[in-house]
Specification:
alpha+beta, Immunoglobulin-like, four-stranded antiparallel sheet, 16 helices, 40% helix, 17% strand, elongated
Length: 485
């Protein structure tokens, strides 16, 4: 197995016997353009994913006159996350946790079935690197042309082509950072502010940070991110088994490999003609013939390159293909069909179903009104001159609907108590704006006879919150503090 790009193997022999450093300067990779089924799929995936990323902040969703109409919005000032018809409050962050758990399980599931499909097709690093390489190829040409430019890096042609490349990368990076901040504010409004240079400074800061990150990681670092920064290559091996589909070189068919001349017999030799086109198109610069490697992102471009060569020399396609370890061990004898009903696949799929059901049930059954009651702690109670006792409370009503509502507050379990709302002339009726939190102070008072009937210093009761419009009631337990018995 070859060492990773930029890494010197510690057991490499040296003439003088000196110890070589573990890390060496990066050897730049010049991936050649591939043509074929998987390259086409990657173009489609790149267009779809980038289109979603750039266009989603501009989608509108009518939530009524009181709420923002941006379909997907992370509203930090209002402490809300809007996703089309779903609205998530800060205290409901467990929904985000559930989505992250689902994403992790989905990644485990697809990896156990088809290897690093996420890495090769939909990972943001892969998508933006593909885009940056396409731009580089547009300005500088394909692999051989880029090699020649780097050999004459101070020529006029090299300077203007590389300048155009980097300016294009910067434009893409700025667009990427700009699209990112649109998820946190109304996109049309923020776009006008950015263009007029009167947007909040934090918006320009995050545009700069995300643009710089995209430029460095997608344009310059490229495969180094996957090899050295991403933890997934070191974890994904635990998801594989003998029936996982991986990009594989079929040794039984390709060996012994070597150059092939026109008219030469194919007997007693393999189909691999050692053209190294699989290496030339690889964005990580590895040789798939060396077997499974940490650097391989399973992008399948080596399959396209090899199939193209097989077509030219008149040999069957599939020398490099998606294959399983079980089938590779069987060689040309073949093996049993790939089975999806495997323990780890069923485990991941079952866990996804359970988590999804929990989230759906929680979303369907979540209340339209949130109630929170805070009792005064200093003092716990106030003794009145007539022998009665008064407790103070703060009641918070969270209206989760997009309509204004009014609620009546009453008490159940303390028949002798009187309720006084501070600052509300309408008695115990509290208006709550749509999608807002209304906090109200109130006093609960028991007269002398009521205090005498208490069974202890703390008596349980309930606040009853009644929706004036439809009569729906919500109860919240609380305690009334009195003098020790």
């Amino acid at each position: 197995m070859e060492a990773a790009p930029g890494v010197v193997r510690s057991d490499a022999p040296t003439k003088s016997g000196e110890v070589k450093p573990l890390y060496a300067s990066r050897v730049k990779i010049y991936p050649k353009e591939a043509h074929g089924l998987f390259r086409t799929i990657k173009w489609i995936v790149m267009a779809v994913t980038l289109g979603i990323y750039y266009l989603v902040p501009w989608l509108r969703w009518d939530r009524g006159p009181y709420l923002p109409d941006q379909a997907v919005l992370i509203d930090f000032p209002a402490q809300r996350f809007y996703f089309f018809f779903i609205e998530i409050w800060p205290q409901e962050f467990y929904y985000i946790t559930g989505l992250l758990v689902l994403a992790g399980l989905a990644l485990f599931l697809i990896t156990s079935v088809a290897g690093r499909v996420w890495c090769g097709y939909t990972c943001p690093q892969t998508v933006w690197t593909d885009l940056m390489i396409a731009v580089e190829r547009f300005w500088q040409g394909d692999r051989n042309a880029r090699l020649r430019l780097d050999k004459h890096k101070w020529s006029f042609e090299a300077l203007w082509r590389k300048t155009a490349t980097h300016l294009s990368w910067i434009a893409i990076s700025l667009a990427t950072g700009g699209a990112f901040v649109f998820y946190f504010a109304d996109a049309p409004t923020l776009a006008r502010q950015l263009l007029n240079f009167d947007a909040p400074m934090v918006a320009y800061l995050f545009v700069g940070i995300f643009a710089a990150t995209t430029y460095v990681l997608g344009g310059i670092a490229r495969e180094q991110v996957c090899v050295y920064m991403c933890p997934w290559p070191r974890i994904q091996g635990a998801m594989f088994d003998r029936d996982s589909l991986l990009i594989s070189y079929r040794t039984w068919r390709g060996e012994p490999h070597g150059p092939h001349k026109a008219g030469q017999s194919w007997e007693d030799r393999g189909d691999c003609i050692d053209c190294r086109q699989c290496v030339a198109v690889c964005p990580a610069g590895i040789d798939i013939r060396d077997g499974p490697q940490l650097e391989c992102i399973q992008c399948a471009l080596c399959i396209d390159a090899c199939d193209t060569i097989m077509d030219k020399i008149g040999r069957p396609r599939g020398l490099i293909a998606y294959d399983t370890e079980r089938t590779l061990d069987a060689g040309d004898k073949g093996a049993e069909p790939i089975s999806l009903m495997r323990p780890r696949v069923l485990l991941y799929a079952g866990a996804m179903v359970i988590v999804s059901l929990i989230m759906v049930v929680a979303l369907v059954l979540r209340p339209e009104l949130g109630v929170n009651v805070l009792q005064d702690r200093n003092p716990l109670y106030v003794r009145l001159s007539d022998g009665g006792v008064r407790n103070g409370y703060t009641v918070k009503l969270l209206n989760k609907l997009y309509l204004p509502r009014a609620f009546k507050i009453s008490v159940h379990g303390l028949p002798e108590a009187t309720l006084d709302l501070i600052g509300h002339e309408g008695g115990a009726v509290v208006p709550v704006p749509p999608d807002k939190l209304q906090s109200v102070r109130l006093y609960l008072t028991l007269n002398k006879q009521g205090v005498a009937s208490l069974s202890g210093a703390a008596t349980a009761f309930s606040f009853v919150i009644t929706d004036i419009a439809n009569g729906t009631q919500t109860e919240h337990e609380a305690t009334f503090q009195g003098p020790p018995r």
